[in-house]
Structure formats: C-alpha cells, structure tokens
Amino acid sequence: MALNVDRPCGTFDRNYYQAMEIFRTPLRKFLMVAFIVVMYVFAFILDDYLLSILIVFCAFSVGMTGLQIITGYAGQISLGHAAFMGVGMYTVAIFQEHLGFNFWMALPLAGLIPMLIGMLFGIPAVRIKGLYLAFASLAAHFVIVYTINNWRSVTNGTDGMYLHRPAPLLGIDFLIDQYYYILVLTVTIVMIYFAKNLTRTKLGRAFVAVRDNDIAAEVMGINIAHTKVLAFGIGCFYAGIAGAIGGGYYEYVNVEWFTLTDSIWYLGFLVVGGLGSIFGAIAGAVVWKTLDELSTLMTPLAEALLGGMAFYASAAFSLVIYSLIVIVVLVLEPRGINHRWQIIKRSYRLHPFPY
Amino acid sequence: MEDFLKSIMLGLASGGIYALVAVSYVIIYKATRIFAFSQAGMLVIGSYTLWQCLIVWSLPIWLSILISLAIGAVIALIIERTCMRPLIGQPILAPIVVTLGVMLLFRGIALLFWHGEVRGYGGSFLPLGAWEIGFLSLPKIQVYGFAICMIVIALLISFYKYTRTGLGMRVVHEDHLVAQNLGINVKRIFKYSWIFSCSVAVIGGMLLGNIQGVGLDLDANGLVAIAAVLFGGLESFGGAVIAGLAIGVIQIFAIQYLGALLPGEITMLVPFVFLLLILLIKPYGLFGLVRIERL
C-alpha cells in the first residue's frame, strides 16, 4: 500500500510508530470496532436467510482478499482462484472422510494444501514477466478439475463430498447457523487483519515493489521469483480458507461449483472493487455476491414471465449483466470503486475548493 | 503404423483449426500487446450466426458466410471502439479483465439467443465423404477445413508482408510511440487488427461448428489454442501455425496412447499440461520475442 497517498495535506507521520499503525485515526479505530461489533450482533438479530448471505459475503471476502494479494499487491493475474477455493473445500472433506480429522485440524490444512499446489503451478510462470501466471493458473484450473473428477476413490468424482461443521465447543453448537456465522466471521476478521498487516511488512512492500517495477525491485535486492511465488501461494492459502469456511456452511462440496467463469468473476469483481486495497477486495466480493443473490431472487419472476425458457434466461442474464457491469465499470473507472470512493472522500474533505 | 499415420492426420486436421484460432490471438497481441481472451467467445458467436443465417433464415451458403463475417467485423469494431480504446495506457490488468468479460458476454449472448443447444448445419457446407488413399481414409470435411485454415493464414501472412497497412502493423508491433511518430495511424491499426482477428475467429467458429456441432462448448477450443499461442511465441504467426498443428497432434496421440492409463476426458488436460511444460522449458515459446528490458 502506497503510504501517504490519499491523505489530506499536512497529515504526516511523526514517528515510526505512527507510520506503522494499521488504523491511523481514533475515529477509524472506533468505526472499525463498532463495525465488527455490529457484525457480531447481527448473529442474534438476523434470520437464517440473511445470515446465509452474510456467511457467503465473509467467505468470498476472504477469497477476494487472497486474489487482492496476488493481483492487487503483487501484480500477477490468477485465472484459477475458484479452483483453489475448491481445493480448500475438498481438502476439508477428504481429511474428514478418509483420515477422520475434525474441522479445526482440517482448517489450517485447507489453507496449506492449496498454497502448496498453487506454488507448484506458480513456479514455472513467475520466472518471466507478463501474464504467464494467468496461463499457468488456467492450466491449474483444468488439472485440478480433471483430478477431482477422475480420482474417484478419494474425491468421489462428480458426486461431490460431504463435510462436517466443527463439533460443539464450550456448549456452542455450530450446526446452528448463527453460531457457525460467528465462527466464519471470526475467521474472516483474523484473515483480513493478517492481510492488512501483510501490506506493511517487508514482504508486503516487496509485493508492491514487484508490481510497480519488477526490474527496479530486483535491483533493490528483492528476489522476484520468490516474491511472486510467495504472493501466489499466500493468495491460494486465502482461497483455500475461504473454500473451507464456505463449504462448511453448505456441508457439501461439488466440483461443478468451481468453474472458469467463477474465476473470471473473481478477477472481474476484484478490479471493479478496486486494486491494491483490502477495502476494494471486500467491496468487490460484496457487489458480486449481492448480484448473485439478486439473480436468485429474480428467478421466480423470470419463471413467471418466461415459463420454460427461464433456466436459459436466468443463466444468460446473469452472464450478460455481470459482464456488462465489469466492462462498463472498467471502461469508465479502470481503477475500480475504491478509487472513486477516495475521490469522493477527498472532495468532501476539501469541500469549498475543487482541489 | 497404420494407427500412427491416422492419428497424425486427425491431429493435423484439428491442429489446423487450433492454428487458425491461435493466429487470431496473435494478430491482436502483436498490435495492441493485449491477450484477447474474448476470441474464444468469438468462436461461439461465429458458429451460431452462421447457423442462424443458414438454417433459420435459409440463406444461400455464400451469403451466410459473408453475413457472419460482416457481423464478426462489426462486433470487432464495437469492442475496439467502446471497450479497448478507452483503456489504452491504463494498467495492463484492466484491458485483460475486459476481454475476459467480453468472452463471458459472448457466452451469455449465445445462451440468450440460441439457448445453448448443440445445433448442426444440416449436413455440412463442405463436401462430405472421404478420400481413400491406401489404408488411409481422409474425411473431406477435415481436409477442406485444414486447407481453408492454411489458406486464410497464408493470406494473412502475405498481407502483413506485402501491403502498406501490413507494414504499418509490423511497425506498430515494434513500438507504438515510434509508429505514431512515423505517421502511422496507430488507432486505425488497432481497429484493423481487431477486425482481422475477429473475422479469423468467425471462420474458425464456422469450421469447428461444421465438425463438432454448433454449441457453447466450442470456446474450449479457443482455450486450447492459448496453449498453442504460448508454444509458438506470443508474437509469431509461423510459430502459432507450427504450435497449433503440434498441439493437435499431441492431443490425438495422448488420447490414443495415454487414454488407457488416464481415466476420464483428457482432451482439455493434455494441452494445459503441455502448456505448463512449455513454461518450464521454453517460456517465450518457439519464436517468441525475448524482450530485454532496462530500468
């Protein structure tokens, strides 16, 4: 994250402690705490339907944050993010079914195994500049889908697998959606906090340096290949965790959930949300999943209007509308919603003056 | 031996179309340095528009092909003018994500208008039957298709080589700013590149629809062609042709000889495993330009 950008004139860091702070002003700290508290309170006041939406928001925010690390911070393109999310889900299912792990033991593995697989596929691609990681991750998508479809003894093929939520802990039964939501929210907050923290570490700054100018980064002594592979690995770790907490909600996983189309929406809505900020990633995930929810709500309406055509129509409309949104937003604002938000904030701050 | 030769023939036949589609990626990459994933969707649109003209409107074949090519060109103009031109000079990610969006937009449009059903051209617009040469039986559909692919590619290569616009395109490929300073209209070159590329993709879509049936799954061929582009080098027509043919042959060989070892459908797996191997061994491809950069 570029420091000092988008700050009002005259706001300086006077010491290292200030420069390293995650939340700069007391107001921001307060708002963040208030937001988190409200999110937790939602568990007890919202019904199961709204909670299911929030759980999906949380899971995809984690996944999108991972893609933000790959794409927004390290400047690489991944076309296999949905597949890695699937690897995370299947990791939990496989370790639970074949090795008798419980959810808590499988959760870190659901991050680590996609990370290893991702780094394996990333290694050939990162030695060279350009969009080669896009091609390698495209290959990863097809290899992963093929493996899941055909390694029937382990993955149950196209039939999908069941996975189980964690056993009751301290009297909290995670089979009830509102407690599972609390678990998901906690994991999400921890993951996003780590991501936010990552951006001010040596590694996070190395990511940004590689993105902005990889030759200059190399001259400064950053090992580009290591940095890119690590960025891709960390991104896949996030994707895997997102898959694990999302799959835990449905308690079922199927290979057909992770299509190339989903990976493209991941990338598209990340750019719609805004590159290079965690807020942008969350905004992208929320926009994407809100649209998903709206199109699900529209389906009965489409059925009433179109009858038997509804199946094609709703699939086609979601493709057309999502892609138009991605295209229009990118053409009008190539830096995403987050950039527009920063402009609005700035113009509010400077109000009587244009700049 | 017999099987071996048959596999090579089959592989070359499908490889010819991969080569054609690979060329359509290369045209745009050469001019604009953007990898236009949308061409995979263009295959679907091309094949469906021909079906619409030929079967639904029962137009004669020559008119149908002309209309499909014209629609392809118009779509190319629209994409170039509305989506790609505003993104010139923006970070490389934005145009790539837009082309991916366009690819899914095409898929959505095809689903909306044609319901994603697999259709046929009511027989074929190329002669049916087969030539018997010794033990080899060559289906005419595939031989003619291969010939059309090669003719189109040869025409394109000679266009780049012998015409003034083609020369301009090669200059733009070297450097946009230098080309602009030499008085070449870079925007017009971009426009021409998109039109050529989309027309080539439409032709590829027609041939694929003729052989495999018109359907949404034709875009898988466009993804396989990505492996060919990478193998040939992102900027080279000759490389794309050789690599396209090679991918076709490798795919058929793998299905023939490894099909017994690997379960399930491996048509998509093989090209992409091959792509990973290329990235490991020769990342810039056979004839790709190794750009030396400086700070």
Instruction: Return the structural class of chain B.
Output: mainly alpha
Question: Can you write the helix and strand succession of chain B as a string?
Answer: HHHHEEHHHHHHH
CATH topology of chain B: ABC transporter involved in vitamin B12 uptake, BtuC
> Can you tell me the residue ranges of chain A where pLDDT is under 50 for at least 5 consecutive residues?
none
| Helicity range of chain A | over 70%
**Annotation, overall tally of beta strands of chain A:** 2
* Sheet having the most strands of chain B: 2 strands, antiparallel
Q: If you had to describe this structure to a student in words, what would you say it looks like?
A:
The complex is a heterodimer of chains A (355) and B (295). Chain A has 355 residues and is mostly helical. Chain A has a single domain, classed as ABC transporter involved in vitamin B12 uptake, BtuC, CATH 1.10.3470. In chain A, 74% of the residues lie in helices and 1% in strands. Chain A has 15 helices and 2 strands. The longest helix of chain A has 29 residues. By secondary structure, chain B is an all-alpha fold. Chain B has one domain: ABC transporter involved in vitamin B12 uptake, BtuC, CATH 1.10.3470. In chain B, strands 1-2 form a two-stranded antiparallel ribbon. The radius of gyration of chain B is 19 Å and the shape is globular. Chains A and B meet through helix 5, helix 6, helix 10, helix 12 and helix 14 of A and helix 4, helix 9 and helix 11 of B.
